[in-house]
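Notebook B, p. 112. Complex prediction, attempt 2.
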Amino acid sequence: MIRKMTCIDCPVGCQLEVEVEGGQVIKVTGNKCEKGLTYARQEVERPLRILTTTVLTSGLNVKMVPVRTNKPIPKDRLLAAMAAVRQVRLDHPVKVGETIVKDILNLDTDLIATREAF
Amino acid sequence: MTRDSRPATRDLVIVGGGPAGMAAAIAAHEAGVKDILLLERDQYLGGILNQCIHTGFGLHHFKEDLTGPEYADRFIKRIEALPEIEASLRSFVVKLTGDKVLTYLKPGTMEVVKAKALIMATGCRERTREMVHIAGTRPAGVYPAGLAQKMINIEGWLPGKEAVIVGSGDIGLIMARRFALEGAKVKAVIEVQKESRGLVRNVVQCLEDFAIPLYFRHRVARIMGKDRVEKVLIENVETKESFELTCDTVLISVGLIPENELIEMACVEIDSMTNSPVSKAVNLCSIPGIFVCGNSYKVYDLVDSVTRDSIKAGQMAADYLREPK
Ligand SMILES: Cc1cc2nc3c(=O)[nH]c(=O)nc-3n(C[C@H](O)[C@H](O)[C@H](O)COP(=O)(O)OP(=O)(O)OC[C@H]3O[C@@H](n4cnc5c(N)ncnc54)[C@H](O)[C@@H]3O)c2cc1C
């Protein structure tokens, strides 16, 4: 089976043709770099996405601190992760890159701050 | 203003503390300018990047996929480490003259400063519903997409529960995903052209991932609702067939225009089509010693290109200050 997809690893957005057999990637064409191969394999097996959102603070200089997962997480877990993030209140200063939630949803991924708050 | 009513003079004044203003300040400093005043009306540096919490920034400049705030932070840290750059926050420039005298408001005071060289980095603003001519009533719930982005990401306030987005540029697409993640329903993205003006990447990860329909060659013909938006009429621009969608929010994402009221006030020549300064080469305008960079020079797609060209603006200002006058 041939699956057509757009590689979203970077803004170039290569149009990939991915030959899939029994859930396995056999061949990828259309990719301009190595990342396309990894992307196609991942997208067929289990699509991953970085989650970026915000966390509500209390008593800090900004009301919302933007955050991201430090690794992509399974696409089908995005909304569950959002629900978990909604429970968080940040009440201590953070630097960019500092962990806010460790191992969110046991996905082996941390939620980190992308903006300083104090 | 000093007592004898002659304004203080600074070597370089920069208006706007977004990525353009910050890159220009750092570059001018590197090129030898040691008296720099950076004026920013907001309470933070970073400009529009503070609300662009998604990734996709810095792939060229840093060879990394950063979020907007992370990209901004790298420059903010450098500015903070340079005492010769005075970053004055909550400083809203309201007046500019052709001989580079600026008036700005700070909480409680009005200040006047004369610049030997001036860099304008005031960014851009969003086109509004008025500029795209959508018929109908004028209920609450119609927002420029970037303003909605600010409400959600900075103020922590979701402007609606069911949205229709007009325009499929990157900002519209990013906002579709943001609404969906926050638990709102995005009924449709409506695009009058045959294809999206945004990156394919964003069509995939912002719309397809959340099963949000994208209608090409369609337009919002009418917005209906008494106090709040209740529904919109969507029309196929080719067949003229139409249908209604109920929603409480309409986001308008139909492009950006350079913000150039100040230099216009100083009688810099402005191209009335693009609102950019009439210019012989990048960052130049019709008054020598005034440089315009970033989104106020022209609307850039990528912040990396803003940084690249704004570094040039900083160097150009330094060269100008060295020229014998
Ligand atoms: C909503 C949105 C989403 C975007 N998404 C992406 C993306 O995903 N990837 C990407 O690479 N690029 C993206 N961009 C583009 C990128 O963010 C811009 O190119 C970049 O931020 C422009 O920088 P700037 O410094 O010119 O303008 P801005 O960041 O707008 O900064 C201008 C600054 O000037 C200040 N200012 C204006 N007038 C005055 C005044 N009179 N007195 C004092 N201060 C003043 C403002 O407060 C602001 O801080 C996006 C842009 C927008 C608008």
